[in-house]
Every structure is written in C-alpha cells, then in structure tokens.
Amino acid sequence: MTNQELITKLKAIVSPYIQDEEAFKNLSEDTDFIKDLKINSANLVDIILDIEDEFDIRLENEDMEKMLDVKSAMAIVNTKLAG
Amino acid sequence: MVGNDIIDIAQAKKDSNWQRPQFLDKIFTINEHYLIHNSKDKTETIWRLWSMKEAAYKLYVQQNPSRFYAPKQFECFIENDTGIVKFKNFSSYTETKITSDYIISEASLKPSKLNSEVIQFNAPQINNQSEFLRQKLMSSASKQYNILEDELDFKKDDYGVPTLVFNGGTIHVSLTHHGNFGAFAIA
Predict the structure, then answer these.
(1) Which residues belong to any copy of the Carrier domain (chain A) (predicted)?
(2) Do the beta carbons of residue B81 and residue B97 sit within 8 Å?
(3) Where is the domain boundary, B88, B112, B136?
(4) Least CA distance to A36: which residue of chain B?
(5) What CATH number does residue B62 fall under?
C-alpha cells in the first residue's frame, strides 16, 4: 500500500468524527487529530477500533499512546502490517 | 495546579456508543469494569470515570510536559464523589459533580473541593464557545488575583497546556468544553 492509499483510508476512517471541516479538507501527514481536526478524545477510541477493523490488526496500549496524528497512525499501521 | 473535564451527557450519547464491542476494553481496567457493572447507571459511571481520567491527564501533563493517549493507564478508584486516579508513580485526587445535564471532574495534587465554574453555552448567541469560555476565565482570574484583564495573557504551550501569564507570574488554569457546556478552573 502506498502512503497516498494509506492516507486516503485513514481520511475515510476519521471523517465521521472530525469537527473542523477546513482542517479535514487539507488533511496531510502533519494533521493532528485533536489540535487540527478537533476530534473529541473519546472518539479517538472509535478511530482506533476502526483502524483495527479496516486493517485487521490489533493495537496495544503503546500503539494507542502515540495515536494523536496522521503521521503516527501511518507509522503504526505500516509497522503492524509489516509484522 | 488543577485539571478539569466536563461531559455534556446528551452530547456524549450522540457522539459515542460505549456498547460498541471492545470500546470499554480499550479504556477501562478490570477494576473499572467492576465499578461500571456494579453501578446503577452504567452510562453515568462510564462518563464519570472518563472525566476523571481526562482531568488527571490534564494535571499530569502540567507536571510532566508531554502529550500521549493512554486512558486505560490512568486507573480510577472511587468513593462517593471523591476519587483517586493513578498513572505510573503519579497520583491525583479528584472531585466529581454529576447533574442531569453534565458530569464534571476536577483533579488536584491534594484533596480539595471542586472549584470549576461551569458555563452553559447558548449556542445561537455564541459563535466561538472556546473564545467565550476564555473570556470568562480571564475576567474571573482578573478579579481573583486583582490584576487588570489587559495585563493577563492567555498562553498554550506546545503540549496544549494553558496558563495565564502576567508581569512576573503564572497562573495555572484548566479549561474544558463539550457540547453545550464548558468550565474553567483556576489554581
């Protein structure tokens, strides 16, 4: 999967939870889920569960800790898929 | 230092489905699962525990500048309205207030009364709720510390921790905002 394909999938996953349309339109690797997209912190759990379902992976506590922005989410998914 | 977190109960019902498989497992420890399952109102207990975890996290990052997402590792212990939240070597005391509309928790390093001021937003009149809340915080801090509002500067550091800065001093604060409710605490 290319980075672009991965970003597209992540964008679809976060879309139901975003509260800032403008930041969502401009979503990139540098986008922060909370600071930029204004996602409610309880909904980060939904995003984590959605990522697990979409990529058929399991995210542990240490993965969740870093799950605050697109770049980290991409790195975590890539590591899990490679493992 | 103080950390606070408010949950708009109606908004939480809209935003989150805690019955979703795995949802509770990602957030709560085994002991917290017992607290939830043994409580009369599971939804209320879930959001109470969540607000305690968030409030304690906000306090923790003031002492330990950092940013991370580890709700399950902030473990809650409760007794009536009072609670303790532990994370690694860090321990904080919490007070919670529950009404039919919102749940608010406040975390501090020593046992103390809840001092958050809660504000109900009137949506159509307020374009920017965060800005409105900040104004309320500034005016309250101005009175409490006897400093002109103009001399108070609102700052957020790289980790998102807010403070009020004035000539020669820093005031620790905490802000929270969810749905139709917001609150601020000064300490």
Answers:
(1) 1-81
(2) yes
(3) B112
(4) B160
(5) 3.90.470.20
Q: Give per-residue burial for B138-162: e unless 16+ CB within 10 Å, then b.
A: beebbeeeebeeeebeeeeeeeebb
Which residue from B179, B176, B15, B9 is spatially nearest to A46, judged by alpha carbons? B15
Is A19 part of the contact surface with chain B (CB cutoff 8 Å)?
no
- Name chain B contacts of A64, Cβ cutoff 8 Å: 26, 69-70, 72
Residues B154 and B104 in one domain: no
Question: What is the spatial distance between Cα B106 and Cα B83, in angstroms, rounded to a whole number?
Answer: 10
And the tokens for B39? 């409580």
The ipTM assigned to this model is 0.94
Domain shared by B7 and B70, yes or no: yes
Range of the domain at B36: 2-112
**Residue numbers of the domain that contains A24:** 3-82
- In angstroms, the CA B5 to CA A4 distance is 36
Provide the shortest C-alpha distance from residue B83 to chain A (in Å): 20
B22, B54, B67 ranked by CB distance to A68: nearest: B67
Point out the domain boundary residue: B90, B112, B134: B112
Whether chain B has a CB inside 8 Å of the CB on A67: the answer is: yes
